[in-house]
UniProtKB/TrEMBL annotation:
Gene Ontology annotations of biological process type: cellulose catabolic process
Source taxon at top rank: Bacteria
Cellular component GO terms, alphabetical: cell surface; extracellular region
Keyword Signal carried by entry: yes
Lineage: Bacteria, Pseudomonadati, Bacteroidota, Cytophagia, Cytophagales
One term of GO molecular function: beta-glucosidase activity
Name of the protein in its database record: Cellulase family glycosylhydrolase
Pfam families linked to this entry: Cellulase
Signal peptide boundaries: 1-25
Species in which this protein is naturally found: Spirosoma taeanense
Family to which this protein belongs: Belongs to the glycosyl hydrolase 5 (cellulase A) family.
All residue ranges annotated as the Glycoside hydrolase family domain in the record: 66-329
Keyword Thylakoid attached: no
């Protein structure tokens, strides 16, 4: 989509956003029946109410909000990924890893019900699982080497399998471990144990595994397990994470452009195709469905740069037939309350809406 068409689409969408009503949800297509070898082109967002326990995350830990599901559906999307920390419903103390807070888990049940009501697929992900999280603090035991951690991880996934047994795969799926960073043999061993635990309870549940190297590298040795796999869309990092305090390597990086220069490489749409698309297309030939579980651009990247980079990503994924989930919906990567300094926001039910970003997403 060229710049003139993009601007026309943005203005048209912005003019009509305030007219969206729940009646639009009645025109949403029924959710497709997914298969691990061919995942639907789900399009949506990550919702963060269970991302961390307590009040320290992007969203305070608490119930998921039905209005998010309603708005997401009204805007034409059909997918949410729920990256969750087990600390929300269990203690980090290994001695008590299997003691679960039913009150919190019922809030997850409610989110699955919201998805069914609004025709949105709900993908449950353990962002923090007993023994591993990509984010600090480190877990007390190591999932990749400690059998106690693996036993607890299997317990948590078996419990979730029991809760949602009987729910069709078009409504809910499982994403096992967020952004693993270990060797392939250890990862395959752990994933195999988790899959066996889930399938001992619910043999037909749709299961998705993140790629290795923080989700970026496909894992061919998981193909025989009949899983989908989830990739990422954050490259190059100096565009997607410019100004992010949790990425020290970018502390003194100059303001990004698109196309970009990163790690002595010129990054443009062709580079993205070679690095992010083609390796995963080889995996697809092994009968593995692919979905982009996370992607997005932090609010310090200039807005025009962010949108150009996002559009190139979206074009590639649409051409590949892949769906995606933006990180996040509300927050510094999202379309609502992102606090960008260079955006003229619209008011949308008390939220600050990035209408141009929303128009771009809806177009792909």
């Amino acid at each position: 989509m060229r710049r003139r068409l993009f601007l026309q689409t943005s203005l048209t969408a912005a003019a009509g956003l305030s007219q969206l009503t729940p009646a639009i949800a009645g025109n949403v297509k029924p959710l497709p029946d997914p298969k691990p070898g061919k995942l639907p082109r789900w399009r949506g967002f990550n919702l963060l109410e269970k991302f961390v326990a307590g009040k320290t995350g992007p969203e305070p830990a608490g119930p998921y909000q039905e209005r998010d599901f309603e708005w997401i559906a009204n805007w034409g999307f059909n997918f949410v990924r729920l990256p969750m920390s087990y600390h929300c419903w269990a203690t980090p103390d290994p001695a008590h890893w299997t003691e679960l807070d039913e009150r919190v888990l019922k809030e997850v049940d409610q989110a699955v019900d919201f998805g069914k009501q609004h025709k949105i697929h709900v993908n449950l992900n353990l962002h923090r699982i007993p023994g591993y999280c990509v984010n600090p603090p480190a877990e007390p035991l190591n999932l990749w080497t400690d059998e106690r951690a693996l036993e607890a991880a299997v317990f948590h996934w078996k419990h979730l399998a029991e809760r949602y047994k009987g729910r069709p795969n078009r409504e809910v799926s499982f994403d096992l471990i967020n952004e693993p960073n270990t060797d392939e043999a250890s990862y395959v061993r752990v994933v195999t144990a988790l899959v066996e635990g889930i399938r001992s309870v619910d043999p037909d549940r749709l299961i998705i595994a993140d790629g290795l190297q923080y989700g970026n590298h496909p894992v061919p040795n998981l193909a025989d397990l009949k899983l989908g796999q989830s990739t990422r869309g954050y490259l190059p990092m100096n565009v997607s994470h410019y100004g992010a305090s949790w990425v020290p390597a970018l502390k003194d990086a100059p303001p990004p452009t698109w196309p970009a220069n990163w790690m002595n490489t010129t990054w443009d749409a062709d580079t993205l195709r070679r690095v992010e698309i083609e390796p995963w297309q080889k995996l697809q030939k092994q009968g593995v469905g692919v979905h982009v579980g996370e992607w997005g651009c932090f609010n310090k990247t200039p807005h025009d740069v962010a949108l150009r980079w996002m559009e190139d990503q979206l074009k590639l994924w649409k051409s590949a037939g892949w769906g995606w989930a933006l990180w996040n919906f509300r927050g510094s990567f999202g379309i609502l309350n992102s606090d960008r300094a260079d955006v003229t926001y619209e008011d949308y039910n008390g939220m600050k809406l990035d209408a141009k970003m929303l128009a771009l997403l809806r177009n792909y």
